[in-house]
Write a structure and sequence with these properties.
Elements lengths: L1 H18 L1 E6 L4 E5 L7 E5 L4 E3 L1 E9 L7 E7 L7 E6 L4 E6 L2 E6 L9 E8 L4 E6 L2 E2 L3 E2 L6 E3 L2 E4 L3 E3 L2 E2 L7 E9 L5 H9 L15 E6 L3 E4 L13
Antiparallel strand pairs: 1-19, 2-18, 2-20, 3-15, 3-19, 4-14, 5-10, 5-18, 6-7, 6-15, 7-8, 8-9, 10-11, 11-12, 11-13, 16-17
Length: 241
């Protein structure tokens, strides 16, 4: 009986953990993902249809937060080769954006950050040159060399809202709270015009060919929720496509 009770307890615990993970493929147009608690149990994992095997990348997303003290990490990409293979960071204390590629890191100064407003961010990197560039709310940065000039390869673990410290571990000091939307990952360096189209969210912009918000396979964990966009808007004076 004791062994049976232990077995039932294990099943219940596993069932509870499984119930907190919800995997689906959906078009998330007009949707936002809400991160409402300061806990490492809440995150979103994005699932690509293929392994990584490309030498150029662009990551675009929008985030909205009221965090003005803690470092914000809306997007992190882990592979078995590099713990921080591609990570977007913003520090309210230094007022700098950071981009990490293949464990190499660079800081970008003078880019806008709006508290309690939508921030549209795109980051590009090209292995042939090793150069990266960031765009925030249509403001471009200078280009900076980051990391070794190697292609992205392997099975990635792509996480929204947490900083990955291992294949299944997160740093509690970098928990994102707020909204994230319109996440797209491209296997190319987008032109400034295509990035401008994304930033304006006014005309039909190019959708990601590696990760697309319009056809997103994702896993929700913890208290994270997908919600309608009607309670917030990207721009007060522009229509969103």
């Amino acid at each position: 009986m004791k062994n049976l009770a232990s077995y039932i307890l294990v099943l219940l615990c596993c069932g509870l953990a499984w119930s907190q993970l919800k995997t689906a493929r959906r078009c998330l147009r007009e949707k936002v993902i809400t991160f409402s608690k300061q806990t490492t149990e809440g995150y979103v994992q994005l699932h690509a249809n293929e392994t990584m095997d490309f030498s150029k990348i662009t990551v675009c997303l929008r985030f909205y937060t009221d965090e003005n003290l803690k470092t914000i990490i809306p997007f992190s990409l882990f592979t078995p080769t590099y713990l921080t293979d591609f990570t977007l960071t913003y520090s309210p204390l230094t007022k700098q954006y950071y981009l990490t590629v293949h464990n190499g890191k660079a800081a970008f100064n003078g880019l806008p950050f709006n508290l309690n407003q939508w921030n549209s961010v795109c980051a590009t990197w090209d292995a042939s040159s090793g150069l990266a560039q960031m765009f925030v709310n249509e403001v471009p940065s200078v280009k900076k060399a980051i990391g070794p000039k190697e292609a992205f390869k392997g099975e990635p673990k792509i996480i929204l809202g947490q900083y990955q410290t291992g294949p299944s571990a997160f740093n509690p000091d970098y928990v994102f709270t707020g909204f994230i939307s319109d996440v797209h990952v491209y296997k190319e360096v987008l032109t400034p015009l295509l990035i401008k189209n994304y930033m304006e969210a006014k005309i039909k912009f190019k959708l990601g060919d590696y990760i697309s918000w319009r056809n997103l396979k994702h896993t929700l964990a913890g208290s994270v929720q997908v919600e309608e966009r009607h309670h917030v808007t990207f721009y007060t004076k522009q229509d969103v496509n």
